[in-house]
Write a structure and sequence with these properties.
single chain, alpha/beta, 5-stranded mixed β-sheet, disordered N terminus
């Protein structure tokens, strides 16, 4: 009997060659050189080591598949883009690549770690907030704890922002029913602020407890000073609200909601936070 040849997965177009600069960035959210020189090295070694049956999918194509999902939050649309790759394979790629990027969280998301870095942060104010990110029903015995007060399933993600809308700290493990104050009390940033490891002050809304290092709005506006304080507080805290807006616009999967498994959703949120900060770093170097 004649031995059948192993079928190729697909005769793929190379997006790096097929799309021009503007089309590529619109589709994958980063310039080609950033994908090749910055993002690919984060995952290339681990993806190369994986033992795959048949024709392996190159690491750069796996990375682009994941970035495309972040921009669409639609498995079917990504599957159409990558003809010949099944939805289950795409799902595995998204989980694997997201996890690899999320593992680099400590490298790209942190407070300034030098005195010069703190000095350059001229205001020394850090804005903290928790934000609801929609997910599918995780199921299981504890699935209902992820249902928030608005009735849908979500994660309550806490972020500390610097004055230039960079992410300095992120907590992604609490279900949507969790109170902001509880998330903060269980966070490492609270411990560091109380120890004095981080100079400056935190600004938060009234969902947070008012402490000597965490300033919240005044509830009783009986004086002109209180009104001025609240006005300045709101204006400053607007930074972190704009951060979430930019983060969601850059990665629409966060805006539309994640219907992936809970473990994958956590990895996607952390991975997009890493990519958000990388984007901020690259933008800073070009301006």
């Amino acid at each position: 009997a004649t031995q059948l040849e192993s079928p190729f997965i697909r005769d793929a177009q190379n997006p790096l060659q097929f799309f021009n600069t503007q089309e590529f960035k619109l589709r994958y959210r980063f310039r080609k050189e950033v994908v090749l020189d910055v993002l690919l090295p984060l995952v290339n070694q681990c993806l190369t080591k994986q033992n795959k049956r048949g024709l392996p999918i190159p690491p750069v194509m796996q990375l682009l598949t994941c970035l495309r999902f972040y921009a669409t939050s639609n498995f079917q649309l990504v599957s159409v883009d990558w003809r010949g790759i099944s939805q289950s394979t795409i799902s595995n790629i998204i989980k694997t690549v997201s996890t690899l990027i999320a593992q680099r969280l400590g490298e790209f998301i942190h407070f300034p770690n030098t005195e010069e870095g703190f000095r350059s942060n001229f205001r020394r104010f850090y804005e903290i907030t928790a934000h609801i990110l929609k997910i599918g029903n995780p199921g299981g015995d504890n699935g209902e704890v992820f249902r928030n007060r608005k009735g849908f399933f979500s994660l309550n993600v806490q972020v500390v922002s610097g004055p230039k809308r960079e992410i300095y700290d992120i907590v992604v493990r609490h279900p949507g029913s969790s109170y902001d104050s509880l998330i903060f009390d269980r966070s490492a940033v609270r411990v560091r602020m109380e120890r004095g490891d981080i100079p400056g002050l935190l600004l938060g809304d009234n969902g947070y407890p008012c402490r000597h290092y965490l300033l919240t709005p005044v509830l009783q506006l009986g004086t002109e000073a209180a009104v001025r304080y609240n006005t300045a507080h709101i204006r400053t805290r607007n930074v972190v609200e704009r951060l979430f807006g930019t983060w969601k616009r850059h990665f629409p999967c966060l805006q539309r909601g994640l219907l992936t498994k809970l473990e994958t959703s956590l990895a996607i949120i952390c991975a997009t936070a890493v990519l958000y900060n990388i984007g901020k770093m690259k933008l800073k170097k070009t301006t």
